[in-house]
Design brief:
384 residues, alpha+beta, Rossmann fold, OB fold (Dihydrolipoamide Acetyltransferase, E2P), 3 domains, disordered N terminus
Length: 384
């Protein structure tokens, strides 16, 4: 799908990125919403801005849309600066969290609203054809004459997407568009959005605070905090090699073991906990190196932790083990989740896949067990 017909649509050959932030800062009075932020969003990708409320993700989206202008720095589309260019001249469209359909218009009139504002206005037959194509695209053929109040939440969400896509944007901006849907419908729409993006081939930029939503749909994700981007990467990169504790804690779950760095080199660090347990782990790729004497943490994902009965031999390749007592066991179908309390390291979370449950099948709350992991399954990082 080509960009809509603006002066900017001739910039297709400028770079491999649809959107770039170059040292972008945005102030609202004394409040710094974005601080010297750099960002590159590859052309044709599904990119998410992920973070808690107040981190700057919605401000970033509004800067791309043209609803806001940066205090300093540059916002570019395919190599061309967007600074000073109003929203209606940018090759982007936005889907808001509150869909804001026109309640007095039917589905066809809602979808065709944008093209009908152009001068000259497209012929009626051409508009009908475009609306039909959009309804096919969002899998709602034949809905032209439906009234807005006759639509379910999921159908309304698709109509709003069709209303944005009929303008043929180069970039579609999504401001938490699934927040109002129930969990089951939200999961269905996550898959629909991902499929739709691949089908139309344009860049989608999603703002969300839901890590599961971002991980399930995105090609790349930028984790934001306090007006800046902490780390950008693929979902697997962010999960497997978070650069710091904030990312490791925000994307998925981790067991964190904090203490003082007792040994460190360019590849790994050893943390001594307050109970004088020493744990060693490598640094994540791109992570900060630690120095002796500073506070650090070892992060271990729950699926990297093995547990076994006291009567069993320790599994091969385990480098560290500790005794504990199961406090909770939750059956999740494809895996079992164990919460284990230990005297030396506090509570530890372990997730055992169904394919490996033979050793743990008979374990129950109250049982004493051993747990452990390979040293290189942890990650060493600053404790902040």
């Amino acid at each position: 799908m080509e960009p809509k017909n603006t002066d900017l649509s001739t910039t297709n050959n400028h770079g491999d990125f649809d959107i770039e932030f170059i040292n972008v800062t945005k102030h609202y009075g004394d409040v710094v919403a974005l601080n010297d932020t750099n960002l590159k969003i590859p052309r044709g990708s599904f990119h998410s801005l992920l973070g808690p409320s107040g981190c700057g993700k919605t401000t970033s989206l509004r800067l791309i849309a043209g609803f806001e202008q940066p205090t300093s720095g540059d916002v570019r589309h395919r190599g061309v600066s967007m600074v000073g260019i109003p929203a209606y001249k940018r090759p982007v469209n936005m889907v808001f969290q509150h869909y804001a359909p026109f309640p007095h218009l039917n589905v066809e009139e809602n979808i065709s609203y944008g093209p009908r504002q152009r001068s000259p206005k497209p012929p009626k037959q051409e508009l009908k054809k475009l609306v039909g194509e959009m309804l096919e695209l969002v899998r709602l053929p034949g809905f032209q004459n439906r009234r807005i109040w006759q639509l379910s939440g999921g159908q309304l969400q698709r109509i709003v997407l069709a209303r944005a896509l009929i303008n043929r944007p180069a970039v579609l901006l999504l401001d938490e568009p699934l927040a109002a849907l129930d969990r089951k419908l939200r999961r269905e729409m996550q898959m629909e959005l991902q499929s739709l993006q691949r089908e139309v081939g344009i860049t989608f930029v999603l703002v969300t605070h839901d890590q599961e939503e971002a991980l399930s749909m995105s090609d790349t994700i930028s984790i934001m905090r306090d007006g800046g981007i902490v780390q950008t990467g693929t979902p697997s990169e962010l999960y497997d090699t978070p650069v710091d504790r904030y990312v490791a804690d925000f994307v998925g779950e981790s067991n964190f073991f904090s203490g003082i760095v007792s040994a460190a080199d360019s590849a790994q660090a050893t943390i001594q906990t307050k109970t004088e347990i020493s744990l060693t782990a490598p640094y994540p790729e791109g992570g900060k190196h630690l120095t002796i004497g500073q506070r650090g943490a070892i992060a271990v994902r729950p699926e990297m932790v093995l547990i076994w009965p006291l009567t069993h031999e320790q599994p091969k390749d385990i480098d560290f083990s500790v005794k504990g007592r199961i406090t909770n066991r939750i059956y999740l179908g494809h895996q079992a989740e164990f919460r284990v309390v230990t005297d030396s390291l506090g509570e530890i979370l372990a997730r055992i896949p169904k394919t490996a449950e033979a050793v743990t099948r008979d374990l129950a709350p109250g049982d004493e067990i051993l747990l452990g992991w390979q040293w290189n399954f942890g990650l060493a990082m600053p404790d902040a």
